[in-house]
User: What shape does this take?
Amino acid sequence: MKRFIYNDLAKWKNSIDRKPLILLGARQVGKTFILKDFGRNEFENMVYVNCHQNEFANGLFRNLETERIVTEIDRFYETRIIQGKTLLIFDEIQEAPNGIASLKYFCEDMPQLHVVAAGSLLGISLRSNESYPVGKVNTLKMYPMSFAEFLLAKGRSGLIEVLKHLEWDSMKAMNEDFTELLRQYYFTGGMPEAVKTYIETNNVAKVRSIQHEILDAYERDIAKHTKTQAINIHQVWESIPAQLARENKKFIFGAVKRGARAATYETSIQWLVDAGLVYKVERVREPSMPLKFYAEHEAFKLYLFDCGLLACMAEANPNAMLLGDNAFIEFKGAFSENFVLQQLKSTGLSVYYYSKEKSTMEVDFLYQTADRVVPIEVKAEENVKSKSLATFVNQEFRDKSLKAIRISMKPYIDQQWMENIPLYATESYINTQIKQ
Assistant: This one.
């Protein structure tokens, strides 16, 4: 399946000041597939070294002499690595001692060789004490498939063009089609294997089975990487659907375990963030740039990195999600919020939220462009009254001259202080804003 990150890989290949590339991402988001596809299409030959449970790779970086490393790979795989013509891939590089450190020497000693290392976000961070090659590598992050990539996999490139060019009138005419496809995406999410299975078989039971298998693999990762924190991490992980089903989605430690304190679970939450399995959205005191200066680390919301896996964890009925509007309104709009955040993160944005103490006023998300802060409210129903958003923009922070976005099932409308964007156009609209 085609992924938009392919274009970023092509830019890297042709960059004058190219360095070895580290492709980061949670497990099973498609890193290996895209790198092999890229290697086959863009190079004369490709050499793939999987460092996971590989005795050869385990001793490959015993010293960091790049000529020796390349020669041994040539001999072991009976190939010939040629600078400028070969793509050398080290998959699961965090599994090989000194594998990450070796990238510094590839940068210095063989700058013409195209080297890509793929690894999990967690694995790379755990190995960072092994002389991480700061300044000697390029990095790219890979996320689950976005809604537009889902449409591409479904063969609906025409709809992608409508979204890309923000053809609001065409979207309104095609609303029923877009809404049906959005329901499907809420169910499958963006994990490539789940999407592929749904498209090829249309069998919801098989898709849900694959999602369970992915979640089980993450559970095994928790047990594998951290013995002391495994129980706490599991408790945080299992609490996320219930946390998101609350009206106020601020993370409550007492919802993980009665009497729980932040100090007990802070490390566990950071583990999940580092693994790329959750997104942590911190509260800001005010909508001023840079937003990071105003972040309150003790107040935050946790979302799953994939809406389909959230549906699986929540045991949401597949048929109810696919055949009606339940997916949009269930769990107090949690699926829709998770969907919107997933699309925002796929663009590389840092995202925050706002709430006022001793008040019901809350703004779901905020992000910043080069010149402004943008508040976002997510509405999963036809009822799109935006009292909190209106108060936030027109009263509480009137001096900031903010213009907000409401993302809902309604068609596009510009109300001067706020634009209403259809849910399915989230990614395309945000992309146009951050590129201005």
